[in-house]
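Deviation from plan, reported transparently: nicotinamide-adenine-dinucleotide complex.
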Amino acid sequence: MKIIQNYIDGKLLNPQENQWMDNVNPSTGKVYGQIPLSTEIDVEQAVQAAKRAFPAWSSTPYTERSRCLSALADLISKHADALALAESIDNGKPVSLAAHVDIPRAESNIRFFASAINHFSSEAHIMENTAINYTNRKPIGVVACISPWNLPLYLFTWKIAPALAAGNCVVAKPSEITPQTAYLLSELCIEAGLPSGVLNIVHGDGPTTGNAIIHHPEIKAISFTGGTSTGAHIAREAAPKFKKLSLELGGKNPNIIFADCNYEKMLNTTLRSSFANQGQICLCGSRIFVEEDIYEQFKSDFVAKVSKMRVGNPTDPATKMGAVVSKSHMEKVLSYIALAKEEGGEILCGGKQVIPQDTAIAGGFFIEPTVIEGLKYDCRTNQEEIFGPVVTITPFSSEVEVLKMANSVEYGLSATVWTENLTRAHRVANELQTGIAWINCWLLRDLRTPFGGTKSSGVGREGGFEALRFFTEAQNVCIEL
Ligand code: NAD
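Because the crystal trials were delayed, the predicted structure below was used instead.
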């Protein structure tokens, strides 16, 4: 049994009220560990530790904060294999994905903000012969970072790194469904010599631990990534208390394929953008729109490739499709496949739970990669976030028609467009109501760029200096000449 502890004031601690939750391995369905169900008592302890650490950390030279973060990134690199395996066991994702995407990205998140803080500068506004204004960007104080289960260490570090680089002290909560790598990170923070109380990691569920964090009066800013309904709840609770909020929420992203695309590249990338991480990436393109001239060809080529994909033991380096994260999530995804059938959809491949032959993983939560056609663009299957290995394919005849369908959802996180026509690429990108538009690529990330969604996909932007601006309070200082 792997026992996880909270990391508060530089120490690994059991929850004070001694309440625990089970941690399930999604590829076996078995409980393999216990995590704290922290209450408001643990959260209070974490907030007080962060508050005590804040004066020293916020006045530590930024070069020294940068050095501390770099030391932590070095340790992630040193322990990358162990972290990748832990992520795979905890989440069900293929270990190859964790080793090539999740863990390297966690390391680069920390390295990126360790470097960015050295280049972060303030604006000055000069009133000729009258006054000089400059913007004094100050760390906020104690801030909260709350993250989801799909890219556990990747998204956890994406929040913590800018918060710490900017001089804040943090109370962070990883998802209770995938707490393992955040726990390993707390061990690495101790090894890296991060000053006590600067980062506190409190484990537990949303209703108990998460709520205690968002309600705490000393927490002045909340950076949250997760579901849209949780984001709405946090916004409702935090708004009257005037907490600063950054919300990265759900998506239902269109993948728009024009007939003039680079077909082979599109086909291979579409396979990834549909099913990477079992479709559990907020940026996956789950609604595939294909120009009618190539619709039949795409359908047969895509279905042929998807039909060859096999789920397997996530810890086997050869596995490309692992387990979905939990039993309840598997049931949710399967219920959407049933809904798609009710709504008139035809399952072209997949559609069922898989019980693997390998007895070691027979109790796991596996779903066949699933392709559905014949659905209206505005039916529930095409409007609601499924967040699993399920995509729909829909033909279109014109740019106007596909933009109407693409923009019809309440979400606006990302979109992918495939065309070799440069003018059309710019025009379509401009018309898409999304925070991110990828042209002829997917998930190509430059950490300096603004990252986030429009509509119900969120409020605010992460990435680059946007994140450092979020984690600082701007004060204008005006000096009369
Ligand atoms: P979730 O909203 O259920 O949980 C996210 C986190 O919030 C968890 O740590 C959870 O414990 C916590 N939480 C839950 N209730 C809370 C409450 N009342 N107060 C405070 N914290 C609370 O989301 P999930 O199921 O873990 O993640 C999947 C969702 O995340 C999907 O909708 C996906 O699209 C979204 N997501 C978005 C992005 C993005 O960048 N926009 C990235 C990854 C995932």
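Residues 254-446 form a domain with the Aldehyde Dehydrogenase; Chain A, domain 2 fold (CATH 3.40.309.10). We consider this an acceptable substitute for the interim report.
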